[in-house]
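User: Could you check the structure of this?
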Amino acid sequence: MHSSKQNLKIQYTLTGLTVVVFILKVATFLITHSLSVLSDTLESVVNIIATIVGSYSMYIAAKPKDKDHPYGHGKAEFVSSAFQGSLIIGVGCLIIYESIDSFIHPGTLHNLGNGFWLLILIALINISTALYVMRIGKKNNSMALVTSGKLFLIDFFTTISVAVGILILIITNVQKVDSIIAVLLGGWVVFDGYKILRASLAGIMDEADMVLLENVIAEINASRNEKWIDLHNLRVIKYGPLMHVDCHLTMPWYLNVHEAHIVMDQFADLIKKKFGDSVEFFIHIDGCMPFSCAICTIDNCEKRQHSFQKKLDWTMENVLSNHKHQL
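Assistant: Sure, the predicted structure tokens are below.
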């Protein structure tokens, strides 16, 4: 897939960029001897490891489904994100520990002015990279790429926080400010690591993506075919770049197999038009029942047994149930 190749290429570039950012942070620490800068540098070590793991996971996720993995390899991205989130939490805890120790036993700082401008340069690199990568990741439905973008976004906030702390140090000359900024930085890192870990575990456990479900339902309602009499037992799951849609679709019982498949293809094409071709469908076709007439919008149906009463809008509440709808 073109998007998978693009994702992988960007991920490789990110790996090289994290090394550049790390080198700049090491230089800043050697200039300033600031603990908050050291904490930020430790986070970059995590980013290097995380982007390498992310690159490998995207390589695995891009593989087509096979005999051993009938649903593809997309969950490799969730595993990668879980690993990245765990690493971020670990480095956040380390930052907090070192910051508290430094608060009790403060050191000596140097060349804060030069360090400040290096941090501003690093922050600019991080924010521009984060915004670009997250936009491409959302466009290509890649959780691993979005996670990598978030790592750079987190790095931007931490680096700019350190820069602000250095600026305060320059103005006030109160060195314990450095440790306080570092503690706050560690708490921020732990929280963001938790959010990444939580989202990845949700994907591994096939937790329903309510936003994605709402978008799918809204698209179906907006371009509804009169022969789609009822929709229920809807399930939408994403594995990396692939989206799987399972549902029961009720159609007129008198359609032959060929006609029913045409109607089913129209349903699938509608979703693909909105969400891309990387969608796999498992659609169970149900024939309508006499009680379906009350919600059936087909005009002049020769088989109708009851009069039409009301068009039933499909919502999150009624399409997830495993029952045909009736008034």
